[in-house]
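Researcher: We are triaging several targets before committing to wet-lab work. For this one, the compound of interest is zinc ion. I'm pasting the protein sequence and the ligand SMILES. What I need is the predicted three-dimensional arrangement of the protein with the ligand bound, expressed as structure tokens, so it can go straight into our comparison scripts without reformatting.
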Amino acid sequence: MLVAVNNKNHYLNAMNEQKSKSQKHDYYCPSCKEPVFLKKGLIKQAHFTHFQKKNCNVFSESETEEHILGKGMLYQWFKQQEIPCQLEAYLPNLKQRPDLLIWLDEKTPIAIEFQCSALSTQRMIERTFGYTQNGYKVYWILGEKYHFKNKLTSFQRLFVNENEAIGCYFLELHVADDMLTVHYLINQQENSAYMNAYSTQFDLNKVETSLKYISEQLLLLSKKKQNKSKRQLVQSHYFLNRGRNYQVPEIVSFQKYIYKKGDSLVSLPVEVYLPVKNQLFIKSLSYFWKYLLLEWIMGKSSNGVISKKEMHQKISQMINNNELIFYVMPLISIESKKKCADYFIAILIQRGLLLAISNSDWIIQKEPQRYKDEKEKISNFLLLEHSLMV
Ligand SMILES: [Zn+2]
């Protein structure tokens, strides 16, 4: 821990305390009130530690050096910018102790959590909702063990956040070189677990690296860049075929379903292959939920009008029936997740299957094209891959 209390109940920051042999200091753990002592060396970040290792469930001695260092680093960084910042502040109504608490304005306190070790999904959700439901914002920054590579584990996925300007993003701290890395515009490649993303690093030691600077830089960068999503329609077709050959359960059940509807992995229309923007949030086989939605839309041919309201009801129904399953991502709103339906509608409009007749109503223009044989399909897919249309 970086903060202790003295016998007058004053809070003391380890970074400001001096170690002296002549003077005896009384330091106590703010949580369990047991005596602690100051550890201050040349290499290690100054911090307090318990004399006895048990009985404290808030500040366990398993707190890694990375965690202590990172907290100290962030604290100094906020202080330099004159951003009000509190270390390890206890929030009694939440019974939570964020690593740091900062105020960018008087209204919204922001909790900063530097996560270096495992945490159960349940605890992560509890802590996140504890903050957001009590008027706090929360930012999670990940430690070395969980730095972003080209895939996301289910644990890392919990910490993906979203912002209008920079899309899906992921924050990590590199304590060894004082770097904050932001991965942004993260999106998932269709039919693969690989992620596309842009990354940029900020040196926290540089004078210009303020919070304001970082957000300005990110805004500039993301304006220049776009979600890089290469069209891989032919590969997507082969992916399904392979899944059938290897009897991948979810692909087999998809195939069985479309058979009953008179379709096959060959006849399947291209609309089912085209990726939606927020693929990253969706756990269900992408072809399957799109097929179901397309089937429902085309089944409305009696009057041919689809309203936004109806469509959102259909989406809710699909969620309830487990036909559309999202990943557990506590920082992403359900509204954001449900946008997959809007993106799919946009695809259908671009493909000329639907026509918008108002802001919230569409009319069916034509049926999707079904393929007679694989040759026809592949050549059509290749053509679409090369066209600029997204
Ligand atoms: Zn304690």
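Researcher: Any quick observations?
Model: The radius of gyration is 26 Å.
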